Structures are given as structure tokens and as C-alpha cells.
Hints:
- The protein is an alpha/beta fold.
- The chain has a single domain (11-133), classed as Rossmann fold (3-Layer(aba) Sandwich), CATH 3.40.50.
- The chain is built from 5 helices and 8 strands, in the order αβαβββαβαβββα.
- The chain has helices spanning 11-23, 45-56, 77-88, 106-114, 140-143, and strands spanning 31-34, 60-63, 65-68, 71-74, 92-93, 116-117, 120-122, 125-127.
- The strands form 4 sheets. It has a two-stranded parallel ribbon.
- α3 packs across α4 (106-114).
- GO terms for molecular function: mRNA binding; RNA endonuclease activity.
- This is RNase NYN domain-containing protein.
Amino acid sequence: HSHGNHVEYSVLGIEICIKYFLSRGHNEITAFVPEWRKCAKKTSHRGRVLLETLSKAGFVKFTPARRVGKQNIACYDDRFMLNLAVEEEGIIVSNDRFRDLVKERDSYQDVVTNRLLQFTFVDNHFMPPDDPLGRFGPSLDQFL
């Protein structure tokens, strides 16, 4: 949502972020997207095509969702992100603070405290901070 100015869901923002990390030499990149986004009215046709392209390339993984009657039942994608970061000792790129989940497990608290990379977009420029853990913490290169 950051790339879409918190007004629209921007699949292009996901692609820009993926390309940023690829350009830095990172190959193990996973973006979790709720499966219902593939057919949501708010996801443009171009966005749907791009989601499928990124999925086929192995970068986007769809979290389970199903429709029961008129209700969508979707798994909580934040848990997928946290679980993979714990399992792979990876970082999470998100502006979410995961306040609702950090107390569930000590391992979640560790990821959110030490391995959460927040960012901003300026137009089509993905911009993480040079000091992701504050000005006395490691540089971005050290963090990654």
C-alpha cells in the first residue's frame, strides 16, 4: 500500500522492491500476497498479470484464502512472513510493526526488534533507511 499512497494496492510497488533487492545481489526473496488479491476488484488487470508473472518467477507466494457463501476466509499473511523470517533467519521488509503478533512468540519479537526493514517510496523509488536500526545501529549493508 505504501507505493499506492495508502489509497490503492500497488503490485508495481512489490515488483520495484523485488528488483531493488535483486540489484543488490539478493536472490532469496519472497513476497506474501493473500490469494484473494488475484481476483479483487481493487487489483487492476495489469496488477493481476504482474502478480502472476512474479508468482511464476518464484517471488510471490499466495497465502491461502477461500470463499464460503458470501464471506472470504483468509489466513493471516503476517504470520507467514514472520514464520519464514524465523525459519530462514531472514529479514522482513514491511512498515507494519506487528504489534498484534510480537507477544505470540519470542521468535516473533526477535524478528520485529532486530530484522524488520521499514522503507518509503518516493514515486517509483524504493528507499530503505541507511540506518535500519537507528543511527547508532548497523548500516543497511551490515543489516542485510
